[in-house]
Amino acid sequence: MRKKEKSMARLKLTRRQALLAAGAAALAPKPAGAQAPGQMQAAIRAALGDAKINKGKVNLDLPPLVENGNTVAMTVTVESPMTKENFVKAIHVFTEKNPQPNVIRVKLGPRAGKAEISTRVRLADTQKVIAIAEMSDGTFWSDTQDVVVTLASCLEDLVP
Amino acid sequence: MSTRALINVPKKAKRGEVIEIKTLISHAMETGFRHGTNGQGIPRDIITSFSCKYNGEEIFATQLFPAIAANPFVTFYTVATESGTLAFTWEGDNGFAVTEEAKIVVE
User: Which CATH architecture has domain A39-151?
Assistant: First the structure.
């Protein structure tokens, strides 16, 4: 009799644990395709090599609070005279928690006249976004923005 | 699938003026990270590159990733150097390739 009670208690406990676990999972859904920590750094190193990335000169414009992560207007502006001697060679944008860290890579030249690009991006989660500019003198400059996303993108499945 | 590309280039510009170019192309930009109603993964189908040539010389090029929203919209700038043609090319998965042209008169 006692033995049975014990086993019941154990059963109850496991059921409670199971419910707790389910509740926690529902409260903090982790996208199945989310990238592992450090993947953004790896992608940055793969694209730019070992160069030192300085802060400044770049302005990454993203809304701080995003309602719909499916289309987020993004503008990257780099301070540069854009002359033949001193221009922005490339702009790279990476995200911390999208399934793939890369967002866009832009090749520019002195003929651009102005180092500014705009596009619309997808953001899968509340996360950091980083824009890195590669200058003609070989230096790298960056800007980071924290974005809060209420409706995530990329991973939602088709509803029957 | 019909593809529509919209390009906004000023018709006239002064020599040396910095002009804004806006481009939009209709494309689903399927990320490859989603699942369909049958639980099967939907294969990736995106535009991977977009470039612009000004009278044959490349002035702008980008590489796009699945994190670019559907119907990619890209805005950039260039210096109006001479009258001529701007050719825009989009290329992507499954042999996707579209080229559009716009004329500009530089005074």
Answer: Sandwich (2.60)
